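Researcher: We plan to redesign the surface later, but first we want a full-length starting point. Tokens attached.
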């Protein structure tokens, strides 16, 4: 039985693509308020697992439960409205709009269940949402760029803006898919500091990441995937010293 403080439970999930068993026997329990990292060599099934959690892929068998709600079978936008927000490997932004407007849009979507571009006209009359968006941009250190076109931002800044777009939805669970991919070391460290700051608010996070520096800086618990199975999970220290993990990384992949 899952612990009472488990907010996300991936229960006995399998995913097959034809003959390929992409995920097998996945049992993952994420505790409220914790940062849970999912790591593993390339091709281990990390993205497949994330897509099953967010409803983009249906599991072949098993189920995903969030805070007592069955996610399996729901549409991605319904999952989002239950309080799950995700930051993608490639930021999904409105390149032609300002940074501030990009951050305001998800707040409308969350409030109204949908967002249509004719709402753009009302963006400027929405003082409450505007103030909150400015507050979020201040949080991620980007208030001074609020009037810039989002498309002209650096990769690190796009990622920060996207984090603000997630935070304005006040999610209970934040899913981060390689949040520092393609970033310079400086941007990576700024992002780590930012995620630590969010953690102080008690938000639950699941991070899929290959950069060990990021994982060991942030995670309370780590699950290691290899060839579609969880081969280890535990605290960073337990995982770091696990011979199976060292073999999966050193034996199979970089």
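Model: Full-length starting sequence:
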């Amino acid at each position: 039985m899952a612990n009472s403080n488990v907010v996300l439970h991936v229960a006995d999930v399998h995913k097959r693509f034809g003959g390929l068993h992409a995920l097998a026997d996945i049992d993952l329990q994420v505790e409220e308020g914790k940062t849970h990292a999912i790591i593993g060599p390339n091709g281990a099934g990390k993205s497949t697992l994330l897509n099953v959690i967010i409803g983009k892929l249906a599991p072949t068998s098993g189920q995903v439960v969030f805070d007592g709600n069955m996610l399996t079978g729901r549409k991605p936008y319904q999952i989002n409205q239950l309080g799950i927000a995700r930051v993608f490997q490639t930021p999904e932004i409105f390149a032609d709009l300002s940074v501030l407007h990009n951050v305001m849009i998800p707040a409308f979507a969350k409030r109204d269940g949908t967002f249509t571009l004719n709402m753009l006209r009302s963006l400027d009359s929405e003082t409450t949402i505007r103030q909150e968006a400015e507050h979020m941009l201040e949080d991620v250190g980007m208030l001074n760029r609020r009037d810039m076109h989002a498309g002209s931002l650096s990769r690190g800044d796009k990622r920060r803006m996207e984090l603000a777009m997630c935070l304005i939805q006040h999610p209970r669970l934040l899913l981060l898919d390689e949040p520092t991919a393609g970033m310079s070391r400086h941007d990576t460290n700024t992002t780590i500091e930012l995620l630590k700051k969010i953690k102080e608010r008690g938000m639950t996070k699941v991070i899929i990441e290959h950069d060990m520096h990021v994982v060991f800086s942030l995670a309370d618990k780590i699950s290691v995937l290899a060839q579609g199975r969880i081969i280890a999970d535990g605290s960073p220290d337990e995982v770091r010293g696990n011979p199976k993990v060292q073999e999966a990384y050193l034996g199979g992949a970089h």
